[in-house]
Amino acid sequence: MKQLDPEEKYLAGFRSDDSPLLHHEMSREEIADLADEFEAISSTLAEEFQRALPRLHLLSRSEILQWIAYGKYITSYRNTEFAISFFQSSPALISNGTTPSLLSWAKQGIDISNHSPEMATAFFTATPAFLEKGDTMHLKKWAQLALKIRTAISVNDAPAAAFIRSSVTLMEFITFSELKEWSTVGLTLGKHSPAYALRYFSLTPELLGDLYRSERVSLFQLVSLIAEVLPERSIDFYVRALTVLTRLNPNIREPILSFTCDLAKGAPEEIDTIFETITTSMLTLSNPEQSSVMKEGLHIWNTYPEVCLSYFNAVPHLLGEIEETFLHTWVERGLSVLHNDERNGIRYFALETADSWSETVKLKHAVSLEDVRHVLTLFAQALTGKNMQVQNSEESETTAQFYPAGDGLTIFLPPFSADEMSSSKNFRTYKVATAHQAGYVEFGSLQGGLHLILKLLDTLPLRRLARDIFFILEDGRIDSLLKREYKGLKNDIEATVADSLAKRPAPAELPQREGLVECLLRLTVELLPEKDVPPQLREYVSLLREGIGTFYRSAKSVWDSFFAAREIYDFFLQIGIASEGGSISDVSDENPEHPYSSSLPIPFRGMFDPELLTEPVTLNPQSYEEGEEEMGTPLSPDELKRILENIENYHFIIRKGDDITGQGLFVSDLEGLPVSDSEESDDNYERLDCPAILPGKALNEGPFHYDEWDYQQKSHRRKWCCLREKDVESANTGMIDLIRDTYDDLIQNVRRQFQRIRPSVLDPLRRVEWGDEIDYTALIQSITDRKAGQSPSDRIFSRKEKRIRRIATLMLIDMSASTNDRVPVAAHRTQSTVNGGAEHQEKRIIDIERESLVVITEALHALGDQYAIYGFSGYGRKSVDFYRIKDFTDSHSEARYRIGGMQPQQSTRMGTAIRHAIGKLKSVDADQRLLVLLSDGFPQDCDYGEDRRSNEYGLHDTMMALFEAKREGIAPFCITFDQSGNDYLRKMIDPTSYLILRDVYRLPEILPRVIESLL
Amino acid sequence: MKIQEIKIEEFCIREEPYYLPIRDEVEIYLAAFRARIPVLLKGPTGTGKTRFIEYMTYTISRELGLIGNDEQPLPLITVACHEDLTTTDLVGKYLLKGDETVWVDGPLTRAVKAGGICYLDEIVEARKDTTVIIHPLADHRRILPIDKKGEIVEAHENFHLVISYNPGYQSVIKDLKQSTRQRFIAIDFDYPPRHQEAQIIQHESIINEDISTELAKLGEKIRNLKGHALTEGASTRLLIYAGRLIREGVEPRRACDIAIAASLTDDHEIQRTISELISTIFP
Q1: CA distance B41 to B121
Q2: How much is the average pLDDT of A160-168?
Q3: What are phi and psi of A577, to 5 degrees?
Q4: What is the model's pLDDT at position A678?
């Protein structure tokens, strides 16, 4: 028999005459008397009383008497509606709260009724709905808020009643605590006119629910500010702002509101216009553009808030001209103008100066590295014959991010080149910089002990000066060799140098020592006319000029630059310029009286960053192999001997006299150098093992940049995501062996099944010597040939031949953090064993993925098909990780080790991973390509779409990526184990290409079947 | 101009072709010819395999004293192999003539009978059942069985079999069978070193040394892209074409763009890279 709950039991009893009453023990007579009393006022009232009473069965006798007393008091108002609402709403208090809350609520209603019975009626009537969304604890505050409004707008109780009614509706979208901010606006409006307040309180815009809480609070504050001065406009603004805000990128809504608020400080009447200006601009832009514009807007706000509005006004036009990437540069330029001349700066941001236009035109022709990176990479590879890569310097650990740099294998270039007024010239800058960096490799700067050279230079008192001289000479050597070797590049280098020199200070503008260094630099680019040399340096410069000419004709290696640098360094000391008059014994770069200011490199030559080099300096005779030219070649004893001999014999400058007091370098200087086991080289090794960007994982390949589909803009976000390929660390195969043992029967079955279905197609072969049918075209041709006296072909048949299809299968496995979740075992499975005795215990999703992969790889291996397995995860668009578990070329046994090493990682940015997988599949020679995606839920990532609460963006992007796969002739298939069975895949892919697996434990059985059906 | 029609087994090299030996390939070939060992020439396209065989045909004719008198030099019979090439095409077939059938020898049979160098170019392109026909010719037996006639032809004493293939772009399916491979000695051909390639370009396109050196340098740099972006490097032949265009007055950058960049690839970015290399080398 069905168990009745106490209330049902009570009600059943109350309806039948003989059952006992609970708790309050009101007798039937007492109730009948009270009902009669209420009947005298209104029959509805009596009915509502009798309907409410049984629902209050948990109240004690004294409590129920108190409640009845309140009821009677309320009836004394002679407002039947008021009393009815009391009895109607009372049970809601008991089901949602406690007995005391019922009585205090009744008291609050009576308090309100002292001001206005209509309001109190609204209060009682709205209470059940309020309690559905709120808490009984908030009832009192709610009543107080209503009373506060009633007190403030004393002439009319309609606004307060509207407050009560609307607040209940609004609580669908906003929290109770926000009601206070919401009501503040109404109170402000009420000060002007109750009608305004009534209009405001009567609005219950659903769009409020689309905003975040903080945004709503800011909006109420803003509306409140306007309401102070322009009450009527404030309500229109409120409605309009809501519509506009919900159409904007969620990430910029809050800043827009606070911007508007800050910009309008002291002039609330301006708020409307300011908000309009900013949002109108923003609405013309895509979501990522809105983010960038706002980021720069905040930057401007922190520096010169006055120009913010001009900036927002100009920005849509500006972005019509330049790429969003260059916005920051444009703004920086504007801020520097502002810094020098405020008036001009303000006009710059309003696009009213020639300067701002020329900057815009310049950036319009800027070249983004991402657009030319592949070409430059191939260019560097062609020049050097080594597998060099070009990367964005922002992704490097180099200290000088605005200059090109390199480590012998990777060339780091600034994210864009925008110094010239045409794209071809900007590309030329990149090309020359790449050639220069490649020149370090091609002409041996990085070979043969650069570390040792740096150490030797660091032993000198003026080490920064010594390094500057050395790098100027070495860069000059590289440029001179480039110009000699590549005659076409010669013109490019010279043009780039000429442009760069025009932007450098002339030697005469610098102190004597720095001036001479600048002269040296200009000599190395062969652009130092005699008139540019300060008179006091002419004598020295002419000596240097002579030396440089001979040097570049004979220099063969980086060591030659070193010896020449030592000579010039000594020459600086000899002529007394190094110390600028100080005595040699106390000179140093950091001399507080004359600190040496390092020479800035010519931009395309880049800033040499020794930290990027991983070349160890070792003097290990056993490890030296003659002819080896790779990075990190240790110096042989013979080589070192040659170097040391040269130190004494080398003459760069024909010295005047022999009274040189320079500090020559002797063999003994080398003895004390920490060489093979120095701290620095140890550090370098450590850095090589464990790059800071990706701790713990070997950095393999990438970055690869992929577009992402923005469904709102209906276009791709260009090169939006950055993916890196990583290796999954191998684990021992013990676990894999265990899985194989467990699933032995299944594996055997699947193998047999797959071998049976070895796919083939029938290819029609025409014009063959034998066959089932006559190829009439060939026959006619043959007869014609014979008649014409030519040699007829005997290939006049056609037949059909079986051809083995070559299939490439790529499995893409979700390795997100959620795969760490344990999956409850279905009841029917706990009692039985399946698949040859594999007893199911609660497992993690990743474990089941692993098991399935072991089974399927055995099958595919048996089939002899090409297959690959990759995992994917990551965090954010800039770091999508693509884990290599098995490449198409890897062996089956390698895959086994890596399957064991799969571990849950972070998020699930599916689109980018699919796009990378498409590339992998396309590179394989196959007739049919399959992409099987295994995932455990929605595509999700921290910035997968601006609205963090919605999966729509991720779903659409994944859908587009799958579509792109199809367009490339790849058959995608998705398997997802969503416990809740969310059928979001329906949106992404056609129904024949996906499977939702409720029972994840069946995956090892299902996966082979799925793949078989696709073959 | 009178168009000459020559029978396939009568095609001879009467004038010395230009060939610049890179290593000892000439001596090796001569030794192989004397020992009657068939030769396999391996290497990328445009590295001089065909030119080499022409040169060797001439050299051997000269050695045999067939040049400079009324004697017929050694013929060079070249067959370009393709996937539809059958045994019949190589060996011969019966033709109808009136009510009778007449046997017509195929190029291989003609070469075997006439003596001379039979050069089967791109042998892997031919069907596998066709390739085996050369097996009895390529070992100590030196015979050609003609199944349709029920005959066996013994090879002429000056008959020499040479095959060529490019291992670079052959797929696994089209690889040469071991039983075929192991009947030949193999001479590897690769792109010549810069200095020698410049000499070749200079000679073939009759341009000055500077331009030919620059063209050779360009070839070397483009070949660095092999494996990264290109399946095959720029051949010496393409460099010669560029040289000839330059000689005809085409501006060097333009000549290289059309003769090299556009020929090598359809990929826009790789083409651009090659164009950048061209503009790096040629002013």
Answers
A1: 9
A2: 89
A3: -85, -30
A4: 34
> How far is A601 from A506, CA to CA, in rounded Å?
14
Kindly list the residues from chain A whose CB atom is less than 8 angstroms away from the CB atom of residue B171.
925
Whether residue A794 and residue B93 make contact (CB cut-off 8 A), yes or no, is yes
Query: Is residue A408 within 8 Å of A446, Cβ to Cβ?
Result: yes
Say which of A378, A387, A769 has its CB closest to residue B273.
A378
Residue A786 has pLDDT above 60, yes or no: yes
Higher pLDDT, A398 or B195: B195
Cross-chain residue pair B280–A435, CB shorter than 8 Å: yes
Residues ≥6 apart with Cβ < 8 Å to A660: A570, A574
> Higher pLDDT residue, B223 or A650?
B223
Does A490 touch chain B if contact means CB atoms closer than 8 Å?
Answer: yes
A491 → closest Cβ in B84, B88, B283 = B283
Rounded CA-CA distance B221/B230 in Å is 12
- C-alpha distance from B142 to closest chain A C-alpha (Å): 28
Mutant choice from B211, B280, B281 vs A, greatest count of A C-beta within 10 A: B280
Query: Is the CB of A384 inside 8 Å of chain B's CB atoms?
Result: yes
Locate tokens 């060996």: which residue?
B91
pLDDT over threshold 90, residue B256: yes
Q: Tell whether the model's pLDDT for residue B32 goes beyond 90.
A: yes
pLDDT, mean of residues A701-707 = 82
C-alpha distances in angstroms, A473 versus A362, A602, A906? 32, 13, 49
Question: Chains A, B: CB contacts under 8 A, how many?
Answer: 69
Q: Summarize the confidence of residues A893-919 as an average pLDDT.
A: 86
Highest mean pLDDT among A442-451, A505-514, B14-23: B14-23
CB atoms within 10 A of CB A706: 25
In chain A the first and final C-alpha atoms are separated, in Å, by 57
User: Once rounded to an integer, what is the mean pLDDT over residues A54-78?
Assistant: 82
Higher pLDDT, A396 or A828: A396
| Contact assessment for residue B85 and residue B121, using Cβ atoms and an 8 Å cutoff | no
Question: How much is the average pLDDT of A201-218?
Answer: 88
Q: Between the CA of residue A750 and those of A838, A855, A1009, what are the distances in Å?
A: 16, 8, 8
Three-class secondary structure assignment of A664-683: CCCHHHHHCCCCCCCHHHHH
Nearest to B113 by CA among B75, B69, B159, B82: B159
Instruction: Report the alpha-carbon distance of residue A911 to residue A362 in Å, rounded.
Output: 35
Closest to A90 in 3D by CA, of A66, A62, A118, A115: A66
Q: Look at strands A880-886 and A715-727 and give their pairing.
A: parallel
In tens, the pLDDT along A273-303 reads 888 888 998 988 888 889 899 999 989 888 8
Backbone angles phi, psi at B43, to 5 degrees: 160, 165
Return the amino acid letter for B175: D
- State the pLDDT at residue A657: 38
Two tokens, residue A914: 């699919």
Yes or no, beta carbons of A382 and B222 under 8 Å apart:
yes
Q: What is the pLDDT confidence band of residue A443, given thresholds at 50, 70 and 90?
A: confident
Whose tokens are 């995992």? That residue is A871
Cβ-defined contact of B276 to A925 (cutoff 8 Å):
no
Contact B122, B131 (CB under 8 A): no
Burial pattern A335-344, b for ≥16 Cβ within 10 A else e, equals bebbeeeeee
The answer to whether residue A435 neighbours chain B at the CB level (below 8 Å) is yes
Closest CA to A542 of A551, A550, A533: A533
Tokens of A257: 């509101």
Taking CB atoms and an 8 Å limit, are A487 and B214 in contact across chains?
Answer: yes
DSSP state of B260: I
> Are the beta carbons of A430 and A637 closer than 8 angstroms?
no
If DSSP codes are grouped into helix, strand and coil, which group holds residue B68? Answer: coil
Distance CA B271, CA B257 (A): 9
pLDDT at A733: 64
